[in-house]
Amino acid sequence: MGCMCGKESLSIDDRRFFIRQRLGEGGFSYVDLVEDAVSHKTYALKRILCHSKEEEQIALQEVEVMRAVAHPNVIPLECHSFHKVGQYSKAVDITCEVFLVIPLYRRGTLQDRIDTLKLKKEKFTEDEIWKLMLGICKGIKALHDHNPPYAHRDIKPDNVMTHDDGTPVVMDLGSAAPARMEIHTARQATSLQDTAAERCSMLYRAPELFTVETNSSIDERTDIWSLGCVLYALAYLESPFESAYQRGDSLALATMAGKINFPDSSEYSSKINDIILWMLKSDPQERPFIDQVLDRLHSIIHEGENRV
């Protein structure tokens, strides 16, 4: 990292970037606005702080997933670099930093849009909901179609950005991992449960990740649960388990019970609630796969276009 003409700068993948401002912080990383020194195009720079070899592997896996999955509805990786502590970081408890340069989405996240609608006491139209879900599900399909399949494991409105034209882009692949796992021992079960508690948001986490059973299997349908929660959030502007969380109830028990409450009145067709219930099955074996979800979304959108 250096300073050029009064601007803080750093080199990533043989490209130089000027740091403009801090955009946000998370539990494992923070994001800066940066400018390419040659093209002057602006990007977001995600800095992942690693405190152990295990965290380094998780960060490198995020890079691997981003490089492996190229799709319009999945965030692309412009460039990246890996820096051992002492190169750019002065924090003694950090072993390394991984820098990811990604596109800058000025419209923000779906959660930003949800928050704005709440303030204005407005809602998405049903057509908007179906189009957003279609784009999100296409992005998740790209992960699930990889060989071997990846699961995102932390799908939520905060992890979906939107292009200027409204196209949704699934981001934050730090929780992504091989989708299919066989859990044979208590140690494996505890390890996955601990990882999920650390990296998968409670309000959108599948029940099988709250309590991982020995001699069980996990597959990509953990994401289908999260997508059902996202569809609920698009329609009703909060997670289906928000009220349970606010009351201090156990989210693990709430998700395993699978009881989904809907507002008494809704301006949407019954298809919204039907698909939410179809996806939010506590037993993952009863949930659809992503291709089945996409088929149903295409059918609904096609019906709507024919009515017009």
Automatic annotation (TrEMBL):
According to the UniProt entry, its GO molecular function terms are: kinase activity
The chemistry this enzyme catalyses reads: L-threonyl-[protein] + ATP = O-phospho-L-threonyl-[protein] + ADP + H(+); L-seryl-[protein] + ATP = O-phospho-L-seryl-[protein] + ADP + H(+)
**EC number(s) in its UniProt entry?**
2.7.11.1
Does the entry feature the keyword DNA repair, yes or no?
Answer: no
Q: Where is the Protein kinase domain?
A: 17-301
- Which Pfam families does the record associate with it? Pkinase
What keywords are assigned to this protein?
ATP-binding, Kinase, Nucleotide-binding, Serine/threonine-protein kinase, Transferase
User: Superkingdom of the source?
Assistant: Eukaryota
PANTHER family, per database record: SERINE/THREONINE-PROTEIN KINASE 16, SERINE_THREONINE-PROTEIN KINASE 16
Q: What is this protein called?
A: non-specific serine/threonine protein kinase
